[in-house]
What we know:
This protein is 30% helix and 12% strand. It is α+β, with helices and mostly antiparallel strands. It has a domain at 48-170 and 191-211: HIT family, subunit A. Residues 1-47 have low confidence and may be disordered.
Amino acid sequence: MHVRxxxxxxxxxxxxxxxxxxxxxxxxxxxxxxxxxxxxxxxAPHASRYLAYDPSNVFACIIRGDLPCYKVLETAHCLAxxxxxxxxxxxxxxxxxxxxxxxxxxVIMDITDEQCMLWMKELPRVARAVQKVTKAxxxxxxQNNLAAGGQEVFHPHVHIxxxxxxxxxxRIQRNHKNADAAAAGTKQLAPEDxxxxxxxxxxxxxxxxxxxL
Length: 213
């Protein structure tokens, strides 16, 4: 049986609000980001294990109030607003708020457990509101990290995307029979690979109890 899959590349919100004429120039923001990323982590305000945090990134500017957004929720610890380049009506972003340089992080791997909890605890509520307003038949939650993972704005963020049957957005078909998996362009996990990989990840998690991963 041949299984067809539909995959799109999400165009990510480099600037999630139309810039007013007196706002910070997006070209200057982009150049500043590139300059800061090229700077060594030792000279950055937050020495990240994965990527130096750039405080001039567009989401940081929105949090500070330097740039506007279509805000749907703000708490002491997070901000939710509409994506300016939505892949679907109601496409919303949820981001954590960093209050000083020492706690700032560019990717989710560098935020603390407490930061993640305070950020993510609002995710179900925002998702429910998006689904209610858009009458979506489903919701996709997407979170990208680092350039290879599809991240373009280097401040952790979650996409909340309304979904409908046959909307032709990203859809991964999973099948448990080898023949169907091959037809779908996927490969079933080999038992040896599953055992070894699971053990390595479990060991890494145990090690993180003694020293933060």
